[in-house]
Design brief:
single chain, mainly alpha
């Protein structure tokens, strides 16, 4: 098993989810609470979880495409 493609996919997914979650939490707090705060804890948790799940899913699709 080659770890490099998995790691690259994880970093891409992690960064994409982190940026989107940061923007969404900022906008949510800005619109509904009138404070432009970012919820860093939730954003990192979501990015780690979805980074792992999306990477696992992409790996499974890649494996099935090879068969």
């Amino acid at each position: 098993m080659n770890i490099k493609p998995w790691l690259i996919d994880f970093v891409r997914s992690f960064l994409l989810v982190l940026v989107v979650a940061l923007v969404i939490t900022y906008l949510w707090n800005f619109v509904f609470r009138a404070s432009g705060a970012v919820d860093w804890e939730t954003s990192f948790q979501l990015a780690i979880i979805l980074g792992i799940v999306l990477t696992w899913g992409m790996g499974r699709e890649r494996k099935q495409g090879e068969q």
